[in-house]
Design brief:
The structure is a single chain. With 345 residues, this protein is mainly α. The chain has one domain. Helices cover 69% and strands 6% of the residues. The strands form 2 sheets. A 4-stranded mixed sheet has the order 3-4-6-5, sandwiched between helices. A two-stranded parallel ribbon has the order 1-2. The longest helix has 40 residues. The chain is globular, with a radius of gyration of 25 Å.
């Protein structure tokens, strides 16, 4: 079987791809005012795409390094694979490849640990909530029924005996909306319906999935100021988008503002809160609800530009993979792993 040496151009190509993705995050933070234009829903999508650029960059490098590290175990496979030939590299080249592989391995381990930590914390919190879960009271059941009809939400809603009056979404694969019994007791039926509609709007938007990715990216790259700025901007945009969707579907503008102000008065206790964020952001949310500005729909130009950026990024990654040495190397990787998993085949 032939083994082809990996050209420096292939290594340069993938390093350039990773650099472009990382630069995209820095530029997004630099151009944050542009990301704040348009509707909150569109802004949240833009910001999520920018925040995920570091993960995409690390993924591109990881795939490249995994492909070069694979030893071809297919003794009867006559198709040549592109494997890294150390003899074709200089001493400096070997050191560079070793450093890249070691750094990528550490990054891969760190990513796995952070993702596992996020899932572990989520499951621990779910188990704690399960021990305090209660059936829906009549008042909460009536509010949930109205929200289900207007937001077309099929997720599970349940009450829990929590020390803090709050409502939040829990879980990623099978999300649930948790409503504190104390919140049900303190809010009026209209305010309770508005609070539940806000959380259901998060579910409708898929924010529970995005939040897991945001948490992982924040733990890995949160030390970078551009990433921190984008994470904060995404959280604010997601909250505003949920407010807008809840008001659009239920018309609970004044009731939601009242619920936010009430939740802010109870914010002295630790834990998730309906009125999340800083006091300035809470004031901004309430102001938008009490004195809404004239509707300013997102222009076609802004929407097309966002789609163009996302499509161009995806197309660029596909083109890099399809026209580079990575494709045959990944072919070797997949078949080798399959042979290891099923040695009898």
């Amino acid at each position: 079987m032939r083994s082809l040496a990996l050209t420096p151009a292939g290594l340069t190509l993938f390093l350039a791809t990773a650099a472009i993705l990382l630069a995209g995050t820095a530029l997004a933070a630099r151009w944050l005012p542009w990301f704040r234009r348009g509707s909150p829903d569109l802004r949240a999508d833009r910001l999520l795409l920018a925040v995920l650029c570091p993960l995409l960059a690390s993924g591109a490098i990881t795939l490249f390094v995994m492909a070069t590290l694979v030893e071809d175990l297919l003794a009867f496979h006559q198709v040549p694979h592109l494997c890294l030939d150390p003899g074709a590299l200089s001493t400096a080249g070997r050191f560079a490849v070793f450093a890249l592989e070691g750094g990528t391995l550490l990054a891969l381990v760190a990513t796995g640990c952070q993702m596992a930590r996020a899932i572990q914390l989520l499951r621990q919190y779910e188990r704690a909530i399960d021990g305090q879960q209660l059936g829906l009271s009549d008042q909460a059941a009536a509010a949930v029924a109205r929200v289900r009809e207007r937001l077309e939400c099929t997720a599970e809603f349940c009450e829990a005996d929590l020390p803090r009056p709050t409502a939040f979404v829990l879980g990623a694969r099978r999300p649930r909306c948790i409503i504190a019994r104390s919140l049900v007791e303190r809010l009026s039926p209209e305010e309770l319906g508005a609070a539940i509609a806000h959380e259901a709007a998060h579910l409708h938007r898929g924010d529970h999935i995005a939040q897991l990715l945001i948490f992982t990216c924040g733990r890995l790259f949160g030390f970078l100021p551009p990433v921190r700025a984008l994470l904060s901007a995404w959280e604010e945009a997601a909250e505003l988008a949920a407010d807008d969707l809840a008001v659009e579907r239920t018309g609970c503008r004044l009731e939601l503002a009242a619920a936010l102000l009430a939740a802010a008065r109870w914010a002295s206790q630790p834990g998730p809160t309906l009125a999340g964020g800083s006091a300035a952001f809470l004031a901004r949310r309430v102001e938008r609800l009490l004195a809404p500005a004239p509707a300013m729909p997102t222009s076609a130009r802004q929407r097309y530009l966002t789609v163009l950026i996302a499509g161009g990024l995806a197309s660029g990654i596909v083109q890099v993979v399809a026209h580079s040495p990575l494709l045959p190397s990944l072919h070797c990787l997949v078949e080798s792993l399959a042979l290891l998993a099923w040695p009898a085949m």
